[in-house]
Amino acid sequence: MKSLKFKNGDELFPIGLGTWKSKPGEVKNAVISALESGYKHIDCAAIYGNEKEIGEAFNEVFSKGEIKREDVWITSKLWNNAHLPKDVEPAMKQTLKDLQLDYLDLYLIHWPVAFKPDVQSPEGPEDYLTPQEAPITDTWNAMGELKRKGLAKHIGVSNFSKQKLEELIANTDEVPEMNQVELHPLLQQNELFEYCSNKGIHLTGYSPLGSGDRSEGMKQENEPNMFEKTEVQNIANKHNVSPAKVLINWSAQRGTAVIPKSTNPGRIKQNLESAQLQLDKDDLKNLAQLDEHYRYVTGKFFEVEEKGYKNIYDE
Ligand code: A2P
Predict the structure, then answer these.
(1) Of 46, 96, 161, 171, which sits most exposed with the smallest number of CB within 10 A?
(2) Centroid of ligand 1 to alpha carbon of 249 (angstroms)
(3) So which residues are the catalytic ones?
(4) Chain segment 88-138, per-residue pLDDT in tens
């Protein structure tokens, strides 16, 4: 399984542990279990509300000494209420404090959407800052400062469309090193992947298993279940593995990183073992045909036209 390579020589093992939706009370054991099973990549975010507990896991594992901080790639994300340049470093420092770390391997702008500083979760248009009030280019320049200060080794974005990346690149001096977006066989994002590859931007795929544990309010009617797709099941049966392994391996062998979430020690281990699967040409052809541009995470919850957030994904 190939690692993702960065310009400074750093390498990222593609399969990481996702922690979105991992509940307090469960996430500490999940992270300990992942690190002890050999994970070298943990994905976090301030808004997941569990960084303090993840920090306890890091502290416990790293203080034992067998697994070293520098051998694990740790990502976190700037929440939408800290986009004003003066708020960027304090937000990151809070994350570092919660995670009990002194640097991050990767820090991402979580969404191309800004809220007022005291708003965690917006209730109406009045809770947003417009792109003119909080230009994303200013947020990005503040992220660059974090990199120059050594607080983040790499910086990037999340949920950015090709159009948003183009605008950002045209108006700033630094190209993001990563874009974290939803990716799986039903949403392959080939055009975005090609654009990012040409610009030297890596992709990380979230919701690789369809995020069936989202709250009901975040779900649409009649969502497809990827585990039950005939093509996925046929490939899983052919290789005698679970459908989850097929989905995770598809992402990783494609050259993107992937962050399946689990708090179950058996499934955490199984998901890392997806690296050992070898999908053949026929499997890849069959999976390629599944693309239906289907998003589980539609981003509709942040589309507030009067505040300048019309279509998050520009489709
Ligand atoms: P659990 O945490 O109980 O293992 P996503 O990564 O797309 O957000 O999906 C996460 C969901 O997939 C969670 O409900 C998680 O449940 C479940 N999941 C994670 N790994 C597996 C697996 N190997 N097989 C089946 N379900 C899994």
Answers:
(1) 171
(2) 14
(3) 48
(4) 999 999 999 999 999 999 999 999 999 999 999 999 999 999 999 999 999
* Residue 47 CB neighbour total at 10 angstroms: 18
Name the residue of 267, 270, 274 whose CB sits within 8 Å of the most ligand 1 atoms, as the mutation to test its pocket. Answer: 267
The residues, ordered by sequence, that sit 6+ positions from 166 with a Cβ below 8 Å of its Cβ are none
Give residue 153 CA to ligand 1 midpoint distance, Å: 29
**pLDDT-based confidence at 315, cuts 50/70/90?**
low
Identify the residue whose tokens are 């594992």: 61
Tokens of 153: 């080794």
Buried b (16+ CB within 10 A) or exposed e, 187-216: bbbeebbebbeeeebbbbbbbbbbbeeeee
pTM of the model: 0.98
CB 45 within 8 A of CB 77: yes
